[in-house]
Structures are given as structure tokens and as C-alpha cells.
Amino acid sequence: MQHFLLKVSFVSLVAALLLTGCSTQQATKIDMPKHINLEKVQAGQFDTGKMWTFDFPPMEYFAKTYNFTPSKEWFEKARLSALRLPNCTASFVSEDGLVMTNHHCARAALDSVNREGERLAEAGFYAPTLNDERKANNIFIDQLLVMDDVTKEVQEAFDNGTTDNIKIENRMAKMLEIQKRYAATYKTTAPQDSMVFSIVSFYNGGRYSLYGYKRYTDVRLVYAPEDVMAFFGGDPDNFTYPRYDFDCAFFRVYDNGKPLKTANFFPFSQDGAKEGEAVFVIGNPGRTNRLKSVAQLEYLRDVIYPSSIETYEKTASIYSSYIAVHPEAKLKYLNTIFGLENSRKAITGYLSGLVDPVVMAKKRDFERKFQNAILNKPELSRKYGNPWKDIARSQDELTSLYPKFDALRFRGRTFPKYLSLTSDLVNLAMKSHGSISDSAKAKFYPSNLTPEVEKQLLAFRLSMMERALAGNDAAFDNLMAGRTPEQAAEELSATSIIASKEKTQALLNGTPEAILHSTDPLIAFIVAEQAQAKEVQKKYTRITEKLQAGEQILGNAMYDVYGTHIPPDATFTLRIADGVVKGFPYNGTIAPPITTFYGLYDRYYSFGMKDPWKLADRWVNPPATFKMNTPMNFVSTNDITGGNSGSPAININLQIVGLIFDGNMESLPGDIIFDDSSNRSVSVHSSGLLEGLEQIYKAERIVKELRAGKIVQ
User: Fold this and answer.
1) What are the strands, taking DSSP E only, across 616-694?
2) What is the pLDDT of residues 398-447, one digit of tens each?
3) Which of 11, 71, 307, 495 sits at a 20 to 30 Å CA gap from 458?
4) Based on C-alpha coordinates, what's the Rg of the chain?
């Protein structure tokens, strides 16, 4: 399921994925057919994808490929009708502020509007009247209003730096200055609008755009199906096709207490997508690595991804094992498990591309041609030198530093809270003078710790740290005291102060010095590692600054050579991706371009009516008027990635024909290369949405609004 992946630079991506110690797990090798000569493999025209920006839409390409030349007004309507959620995409689908996205993008909002005894993520929700629509307090929706090129200002600031560190600082300072300037201007000229601004880097710094979003905060839940229907097939079916998911949700934006009136929305197509039809996905793809150097990709392949896969897999199994024994905890950990399994499956797919010899041969061919375009032209060679060598050197340094760097980090998405809390406690003591504030004490210890889960997470984390530190780090050896990670975790969980809220609170009520001189094994370990951790962090920062500076130079060179003929990597900003509705070869046969509700019921009965192919009760015996041959899901050749979840799939008439919710397994290597021979995006069909809403959920109010494009009284 395409989600949870936000806008990040390569360096921050690496930091986000450094979740565990260096893994001994090796990437699976792909056997290469003997008839393929890798030396003759060439990069393809669209290897870098089709995620076109609205700054530089490919007008000539659209005209040539689809005999369709969108007007300026067409692009503006598409841009203003599309929306961005904190982690996904959405769109206006009526003039009265009705918003469509995926159910998996709305989970947090569903949880926020639960009333006593409700579990809306499981049961679903439908507001039969406007008064029944529930305000979600933890969601906002952004609409892209402003796009300005600010490359010259940012580039000049970067160039004025005399060291890598100063260049990066100059660039950041200039970007913040520009953002503040725009915010001040709009506060004066459009005070009625709540605007947020950010500067987007395209082509690794080859171009910079200032994006301004109108932010809507009064967002109310209108409809969401049951979780089992939105994620029918669960993790086994995730990133696969044929597919049968009703993964949708509807919100409404309100303005001054009334439904927002907007001229910009996508009306629903009554017939939906047809095989062979051109479709355009308007969305916010999170990130890709297609324009990275070969050295950067090899670092992901050899260091980051194998370690991340191992961590996600083990952590998910810890939570799953716990709820198998304690089913009452399922609701608490369901989203966590889903996110971990989704990430594991996604990164496994990314890695499959990196270990594919043909894919890597294409990447090397692209880099070789790019290098020749620079090095064979004296003016470009003088201007840019050889940034590939500098980047490769930085990646080698990161590879050497990685195990210790990761081992001496004590917090992260998959880390045990016992470890992160101990680190927080030590940091709080080091920063406090005399005593710790009451406010810091009050919010320090979380209320939802599960000791058995924390013990298992600690054992796994210690096992990862052991690979880098055992035998060459006295503090770690003292912590382990000759025990296995499992034995150490068992004893530490039973005896450490940090495992008890009351004991931790008592320590907080004392002096900072008492914390820093505590004999508690976990606290003493964190205190002892402070100097080394800071030194390793300093080295890591220095290397990543060199890497960022090299990427900036590479980005400028890329823009000089290719301009906007190739799209930039995904940045969780608005893009338009073209494609056609088309099946693909798989599993020795052919996947149909469109599935129907017949397939949903076949899968339900074929798997014995069991999870995760169990239907919600209301779906088991559909009414006689329910048309089983209605299209439910479909695939198309549109280029998408995480962040595109909830994107509208539209036709040339700017009508909704589908709702993006996933990609197939073959789409996952698209992180580094796009190949539309089998890479497919997966959507809920607009006809299927209307049929399910009308016949199964009896949501007549929504159906009428979608068909009319406005509220029907």
C-alpha cells in the first residue's frame, strides 16, 4: 500500500532508514539469463519516470503520445482540484468541498472521531446528514496555490559558501528567508487565507521552487468503509494485483462553519476507466532515488535496505506474536503492524531492483552517458569537475561509519522505549541546572508501555548493537556482562529503574547529578557512551554535508545537460503522471486490466471466508440489485510511489475514473527505475465506488453529490 513515505532528501532518507545495526543478511541474487550481455544494456528513455511537475509540464510529449494538448486552464484546474494530506493525496470531488482519499490515509482521523465504545476503523462510518459529519482534529488539507522559481537566490547563497558546511548553512538560511518573505507578503495581501510555504529542491538542487499552500483545518469525516473491505486481502495481497479493495474515504472541508464552495473539483465519470484509455494521476509522490549516482544506490543496496528489512520483519513479528496471545491488544497495535509490514514489503521490492544486474546495468549506462556529457565538454568539465568521485568517496566513508553510528543511536521508529526513555532521561539531566522542571517531569513517562513488548524489542535491539560494539566497547560489554541479548533484556526489564514509572518519577524528583551518577545499568551505559556518540555523530554530519554539497553540484550539472526533459525525483509535491489502462504478464498468465465484484466474492469463498479475505457483514449477502459485473479495481501504467495514495486518476475531460491506492510488486523497483512493461498502479474504479456506496452502504446522499458535483437537497 503506497503511503507513509514523506518528502525527504537522500541524506534525511538515510537517517530515517538507519533503524538498526548493520545486518548480516545478504541481498538475494537474481540469476541473469545467459544471452544478456550487460555491456550492451542501455538506459531507456523513461527510466527516470513520468512524474512530471506542474512547473514544467511536458506539453509536446502529451500531444505526441495521446494526441491531446492540455491547455493552461486544464493544468490549473487539475492543480487546484488536487489536494495534499499530511501523508497522502486527496482531491475535491464536488463544488461543496467533498474530498476523496483512501481509507488507509484516513485511519488517524477515524480514530480521532471515535466516540465511547466505537471502533470506526473496523466498523466503518457514514454521516447520513451534514450535521452528522464529524470534525477530525488531527488532520489538515493543503491546496497548492503558488509556484515560483527561486533557483537563482538559493544557488547564489550556496555558491557564496567557502566550505561544505557553510554552503549548506547558507542554502538553508536563504530558503528560510524566502519562505518568511512570502509568508509576510501573503499575510498582508490575503489575510483571509491560512498559507504555508516551503521550498522544493528538484534535480538534487538543480532547480528550486517556492510552493505556497492554502491550508484547510476544518475537515470533517463523511464516510469510510470497514477496514476489512479497504484492506481486503491484508498483507498477503498488499502490493499485488488482481485486487479487490474498497479503499476509499470521504471528508468535507468547511469554511466559517459551512461546506466550502469551490469551483475547482473533479466531477465523477459515470462509466469510469476503459481498457486502453489514457489516464492521468494527479498526486504527491513521496520520494524516489532514480537520479542518484550508482555509488549512492549501492550504499542503499549493501547497507541500508538489508538492515531495514530485517528490522521491520523482526519488529512486526514481535507485535504480531504479542496480539496472538493477547487479542485484546489488536486494536492498539494494528496500525503499527500494518505500517511495519508495508515498509518491509516495499523495501524488499526496492532491493529487488538494486540486485537486478540488468537494472543496475541501465543505471551505469545512464551515469556513463551523463558523465561523458560533462567531462567531454571543457566548459562543463571546468564548471563541475567530477562530483561522482566525491560522492563515491563519501558513501565509502558512510559505509565504514554506519555500524557504530547506528549502534550509538538510542531512538527510532522500531526502538524499545526503555532505551529511548533512558537516553531522554540522561539528556534531560545534562541540560538541566539544579533541578528538572515540573512540566518536564509531568510529560516524561508514556502511559501506554507494554512490558512484554518492550522486553522483546530491547532483546532485538541489543542483538543488533552487539554486532558493532561487542568486544570493542567497554560500556556495552559492561551492560551485557557476558549475557545473551535475550538474557540481558529479561534482567534489565525486570530490574532497571526505567522499566518502572514510579521509580523513574522518583529519580526525576531528585537532582540531575543523581541521574548522571546512577548505577542503573541502562542509565550508566547511556552516560558512558555520550562522548563517543557525539564524536560519531560529528563525523556523520561532516560526511553528509560533503555528500549534500556533491549532490548539489551533480544536480546543477544534470539540469544543465537534460533540463526538464526528464522529471525530477519525487519530493512529496504535486505531480502529473500519464499512462493507460493496461494489464500485464504475471505468474505465467496475464493480469486483467480491470477486476469486478465477482472476483471479490471468488476470493472470499476460495479462502474459506477467513481473514484476511473475510468480508464485512453487510457485503456477505448483497442485494439483488447489486451488479456483480461492475468494475471494482483496475491497473494502469501511471508512474506512482508512496505519497500517491488517494490520488485521483482522471481522464482527458478532468473526470474521476479511479482512485489510486497501491502499486503491484513489479512497481517497487520503480524506486530507482521506471519500466512500464509490468510496473502498474492500482486504483479503485469510479463505477465500483458508486455501486458499492449506493447498493451496499445505502449512502445515497454521497452518491447523489458525486453524480451531480454538488450537494443535492
Assistant:
1) 631-636, 648-650, 656-663, 681-685
2) 999 999 999 999 988 899 999 999 999 999 999 988 889 899 998 999 98
3) 11
4) 26
